[in-house]
Design a protein that fits this description.
The complex is a heterotrimer of chains A (about 300), B (about 180) and C (about 550). Chain A has about 300 residues and is α+β, with helices and mostly antiparallel strands. Chain A contains 7 helices and 12 strands. In chain A, the strands form 3 sheets. Chain A has a 5-stranded mixed sheet. With about 550 residues, chain C is an all-alpha fold. Chain C is about 65% helix and about 0% strand. The longest helix of chain C is centred in the first third of the chain and has 35 residues. Classes of the chains: A alpha+beta (about 300), B mainly alpha (about 180), C mainly alpha (about 550). The interface between B and C is medium-sized, with 29 and 33 residues. Bound molecules: heme-A (2 copies), dinuclear copper ion and copper (II) ion.
């Protein structure tokens, strides 16, 4: 990041100086060389000067050389080689949400990347459909998620906190609502989070939540979603195992409250027109039951 | 006029880029076919090689046609134009035979990237040969009707340049598709 | 000194060409390069209004966060059509059209080398545009995959509608038109020059058209082949660009940008040419460093073929490839800088008449340098990793295309309008147009640099209410409406001037190139008598027999090709 800041400052400085020279020259010309009333005839006919041409070829050559060397060194600093090791995180782009996999622990979540603050993790980025692009401005560089061409990137977040980002490569109707949150935690919080996510939840056996569990298995939800510990294991939509622990739903279109989940279930297209989650035509009771079930998984 | 000959040369340069891109697409996928047909598994270099000889020969005959024109030899011009058309047509027949053979085995443009690149490349080349045949036929018709008294004709020169180009493209295509796979 | 240089005898017969023969058929069936040129210009003005209205709808939608004016599908169609229209149906055909009109005049020829092909080019352009816009009226709507239609989004599985098919077909057709036009120009410039018009005396506009035409000849086939492959994928189930079936998403990007980058220089080189004609005439000095301005054009043309992957730094091509493309892109700053500094030096020491063409040309220099410098910044890989696909890029290319090409185009319209029509454009309305454009343009696009750095991705139909985003976007939107106002003034100026503009005479600006040596508008046969060419400024030589540009030059009567 520091290298990048240096490069940026140099580039801005060079640009401002060049632009300044041109602007000042033009301003001077406008004042000094505009045709004044009473001036007659043609000015001195000047065809050029080889010396000047050489000067203003060589100076830009030097500037470009400096910029290029800075570019190379910064590129190496920002994007060090990944040393052929297994990634810590796999980020998979879907039309219009993110699947996050922690291969070591087997945890799968969506739309939120949890990180231990200060530790550098290697991410592998893939896409199952079209090209997406992972961009969290405060964490620096962005990188494309290209189908058939996995990419690698180091991510590190210095301080604990929430860093907001979005998909930057146009990927269809809901490209605008493909947001991502990077949540940097202290090492303890992070490992606590990871252990909790890796646990297999108990399916509620009583009450309205049990009702919801049944509905979830019966109507096609499980064709698209995963809930660990149940037959639902599809990855067309986000894993719902610990949905209740996430901040948002629909990759950032709604904050995650039971109310909003209910609204989403009734009509996803209302909040995310074009979203690939169909309107399942649920009754209010069914919705309430499913919401209770999804919330109960986190207990 | 110099214009026409200059035009056809730049046109050929432009067309070369077009074919270059199709060839690059083929080369790009050469090693990436994992399932389905490949050049090795579906093509017959010998038969296509023999048909290619006809196309090569036609470059020679069109050159002879040009020579006849220069010598104001009208009957020679007719003969060699006709021979060029026949040789080109035989080549196209060979291409059609190969394509239908592949279709018969279920290999089409949508089979995999080999199918896509192979049919696109050979298809566009075949299309250019057909365009050349049409132009040669027009020339022959005009000759029969009494045109082209020689010793010069932009039309004949341009068409023959174009024909050499189509022939040259085939040499590259044949090398890339057939020789690369079988040598 | 009189404002006319008396080489063409005062014409007593009514002017043919424009004005007299105005039946529709005389236009449709025309193979006269001037009529075809005018048709290009009218066509592009119409497309400019359409593309601009699309931009206004985009900006209206973005005026505030979370706006729900447009559905996402509609928004995506709008920016795709806006970008496609502006590039392929406004700037590119405008420059081709101006070239078609002026090149034969500037080299003292009667017409293009192939007048019928010239007409064919125009009609292919017109037909391609109709095909593209027809998609709006089909059930599936217009293409909605962005102006570079990245695969696999543009492929069948992800775009079931026919939009991308129309897009590829329309551009394929109009692209072939441009290719033919390029061929025609190359041959015309190389073979049809009047005696004495050597390559070293060619007007700079013609030089830049020549290089542009070479680019057209060599890069249009790249995109043509890519369109063909995309169409085969979509229509016959081929698998070139569908990774799920073994194809490659990145191959499309290489093909598109292999064309797309040279394309941006196709958009800007003729504009450089216009500026290189306007600045000397209004500064009353010859162009400074002619050889360097012409030579740097060739350098830009060559370099532009080898930098395409700077649009793909985020794709993951590896740092070696990235470094190469970064260096190649930065190198283009050098020949471009040579041009900029020569323009400034041309003005230096001049006696400058800041009429409207010169105002636009002067503003062009500054706006274009802003765009060029942001271009060099994003040619630096790590900076591009931060700002690519954000509004910073939108700002960059509007500064180069609008601040560059379009400003030059406006300069050219005001400069040559008297030649095209025989009437001057209104200076007062022109100044209004100029100032509104400058204010509106910078207001719309400068702030987008900051929006991009602050994290706003491009091509988003809506955005969250992040700090400052709303007000910054609102400023940009207001700027866009000021541009719209300026365009209305411009169109009004054209209409008013066509009807009652002051008669222009042959050479109202006292310019020096051959097109000013004939009547305005020129007769069908262009010249009764082409003045002798013994230097780069034939009309200067005529007006100043005592101080010609090349005192030792002999008068040649044999053409370069006998
Ligand atoms: C007229 C069109 C035009 C022109 C002329 C340019 C000119 C340049 N462009 Fe631009 N560009 C576009 C149109 C244009 N561009 C478009 C349309 C896109 C986006 C497409 C899309 O994604 O939709 C784009 C995108 C684009 C990118 C990709 C960004 C991304 O997607 O991430 C890059 C990256 O390198 C780039 C670089 C450059 C450079 C280095 C120049 C150089 O040629 C600039 C050279 C000029 C100068 C530098 C100024 C004058 C020079 C001096 C005064 C001398 C001294 C200066 C120095 C020594 C620095 N451009
Ligand atoms: C030549 C190129 C060119 C030109 C001139 C313009 C001109 C303008 N562009 Fe353009 N733009 C592009 C090329 C161009 N653009 C490209 C290539 C893209 C990328 C597309 C993509 O991502 O795929 C883009 C994208 C783009 C975006 C980003 C969209 C997004 O990423 O989501 C925006 C947003 O502000 C924008 C705005 C504008 C504006 C306000 C103008 C204005 O300057 C327009 C001015 C013109 C008018 C305003 C017309 C006025 C006419 C009238 C007022 C007539 C009224 C008539 C009646 C009422 C009858 N453009
Ligand atoms: Cu995913 Cu944009
Ligand atoms: Cu580029």
């Amino acid at each position: 990041m520091e290298a990048l800041a240096g490069l940026t400052y140099y580039t801005i400085a060079i640009s401002v100086v060049i632009l300044g020279i041109i602007v000042i020259a033009v301003a001077y010309i406008i004042i000094r060389f505009r045709k004044k009333s009473g001036e007659e005839g043609e000015p001195y006919q000047d065809f050029g000067s080889l010396k000047l041409e050489i000067t203003w070829t060589l100076i830009p050559v030097a500037i470009v050389a400096v910029l290029f060397l800075l570019t190379c060194s910064t590129m190496r600093a920002v994007d060090p080689p990944s040393a052929d090791r297994e990634p810590d995180i796999i980020i998979i782009g879907h039309q219009w949400w993110w699947e996050i996999v922690y291969p070591e622990s087997g945890v799968i979540t969506a739309n939120e990347v949890h990180l231990p603050a200060g530790r550098q993790l290697l991410a592998r980025l893939e896409s199952i459909d079209v090209i997406h692009d992972f961009w969290v401005p405060e964490l620096g560089r962005k990188i494309d998620l290209v189908p058939g061409h996995p990419n690698y990137m180091w991510i590190v977040a210095g301080e604990p906190g929430v860093y907001l980002g979005a998909c930057a490569e146009f990927c269809g109707a809901q490209h605008a609502n493909m947001r991502i949150r990077v949540i940097a935690q202290t090492e303890e919080e992070f490992s606590e989070w990871l252990t909790r996510q890796a646990r297999i939840p108990e399916t509620p056996s009583t009450g309205i939540a049990a009702e919801g569990a049944k509905i979830f298995q019966e109507i096609a939800c499980m064709n698209c979603h995963t809930i660990a510990g149940t037959p639902a294991a599809a990855r067309v939509g986000p894993s719902l195992t610990y949905l209740a622990t996430r901040d948002t739903i629909g990759a950032g279109v709604l904050t995650n409250t039971p109310d909003n989940i209910a609204k989403w279930l009734k009509n996803p297209a209302k909040y995310k027109p074009g979203s690939l989650m169909p309107n399942m035509k649920l009754t209010d009771e069914q919705v309430n039951a499913i919401v209770a079930y999804l919330e109960a998984l986190d207990e | 006029m110099a214009n026409n000959r200059m035009m056809i040369k730049f046109f050929i340069a432009s067309e070369s880029i077009f074919f270059l891109m199709l060839i690059l697409a083929y080369v790009n996928f050469h090693n990436s076919v994992t399932t389905g047909p490949t050049a090795k598994s579906s093509l017959d270099p010998y038969v296509t090689g023999i048909f290619s000889l006809f196309l090569l020969a036609s470059s020679f005959t069109v050159w002879l046609a040009g020579k006849s024109l220069k010598n104001r030899n009208r009957s020679g011009l007719k003969l060699w134009l006709f021979a060029t058309i026949v040789l080109g047509a035989v080549f196209i027949f060979g291409q059609a035979r190969e394509w239908f053979g592949l279709f018969g085995r279920g290999i089409t443009i949508s089979s995999n990237v080999f199918g896509s690149t192979f049919f696109t490349l050979t298809g566009f080349h075949g299309f250019h040969v057909c365009v050349g045949l049409v132009m040669l036929s027009v020339l022959l018709g005009l000759t029969l009707a009494g045109d082209f008294k020689g010793p010069k004709s932009d039309a004949v020169e341009c068409v023959s340049l174009y024909w050499h180009f189509v022939d040259g493209v085939w040499i590259v295509v044949f090398s890339v598709i057939y020789l690369w796979a079988f040598l | 000194m009189s404002s006319r240089i008396p080489i063409v005898p005062e014409s007593t017969e009514p002017l043919p060409g424009l004005g007299e023969n105005t039946g529709l058929l005389s236009w449709v069936a025309s193979i006269d390069h001037k009529q075809i040129g005018i048709m290009y210009l009218i066509g592009t003005l119409i497309y400019f209004v359409i593309g601009g209205l699309e931009a206004l709808m985009i900006r209206t939608q973005l005026a505030k966060p979370g706006s729900e004016l447009l559905s996402p599908e509609m928004y995506n169609q709008l920016f795709t059509m806006h970008g496609t229209t502006m590039i392929f149906f406004v700037v590119m055909p405008f420059l081709i059209g101006v070239g078609v009109y002026l090149v034969p005049l500037m080299i003292g020829a009667r017409d293009m080398a192939f007048p019928r092909l010239n007409a064919l080019s125009f009609w292919l352009f017109a037909f391609g545009g109709v095909l593209l816009y027809y998609s709006f009226f089909t059930q599936s709507g217009a293409p909605d995959v962005g102006w570079f239609a990245y695969a696999p989004l543009s492929e069948k599985p992800f775009s079931l509608n026919n939009g991308p098919t129309y897009w590829a077909l329309g551009l394929l057709v109009s692209g072939i038109g441009s290719l033919i036009s390029g061929l025609n120009n190359v041959v015309t410039i190389l073979t049809m020059r009047t005696p004495g018009m050597t390559m070293r005396r060619l007007p700079l506009f013609v030089w830049m058209m020549l290089v542009t035409s070479f680019l057209l000849v060599f890069v249009i086939p790249i995109i043509t082949s890519a369109f063909v492959m995309l169409l085969l994928d979509r229509l016959l189930g081929a698998t070139f660009f569908t990774p799920a079936f073994g194809g490659s998403a990145i191959l499309w990007q290489h093909f598109f940008w292999g064309f797309g980058h040279p394309e941006v220089y196709i958009l800007v080189l003729p504009a450089f040419g216009i500026v290189s004609e306007v600045i000397p005439v209004f500064s009353r000095k010859p162009i400074y460093g002619y050889e360097f301005v012409a030579g740097s054009t060739v350098a830009i043309g060559l370099l532009s073929l080898g930098v395409w992957a700077h649009h793909m730094f985020a794709v993951g091509l590896g740092n070696v490839a990235n470094a190469y493309f970064s260096l190649a892109s930065m190198l283009i700053a050098i020949p471009t800088g040579i041009k900029v500094l020569n323009w400034v030096s041309t003005m230096w020491g001049g006696r400058i008449n800041f009429a409207v063409p010169m105002l636009f040309a002067t503003a062009f220099i500054i706006e274009f340098v802003v765009g060029g410098l942001s271009g060099v910044a994003i040619a630096s890989v790590p900076i591009d990793w931060v700002v690519t696909d954000s509004y910073f890029i939108v700002a960059h290319f509007h500064y180069t295309i609008f601040g560059g090409s379009l400003f030059a185009i406006f300069a050219g319209v005001y400069y040559w309008f008297p030649k095209f029509t025989g009437r001057m454009m209104s200076e007062t309305l022109g100044k209004w147009h100029f100032w509104l454009t400058v204010v509106g343009f910078n207001m719309t696009f400068f702030i987008q640099h900051f929006l991009g750095v602050m994290g706003m991705p491009r091509r988003t139909y809506t955005y969250h209410d992040m700090p400052y985003w709303g007000s910054m976007n609102l400023i940009s939107t207001i700027g866009a409406f000021i541009i719209a106002l300026s365009v209305l003034v411009f169109i009004w100026n054209i209409i008013v001037s066509l009807r009652k503009g002051e008669p222009a005479g042959d050479n109202p600006w006292k310019a020096w190139t051959l097109e000013w040596a004939t009547t305005s508008p020129p007769p069908v046969y262009n010249f009764k008598l082409v003045p002798p060419v013994r230097g780069r400024r034939p009309l200067w030589d005529l007006a100043h027999p005592d101080s010609p540009d090349e005192p030792d030059a002999k008068i040649v009567t044999e053409g370069p090709n006998g």
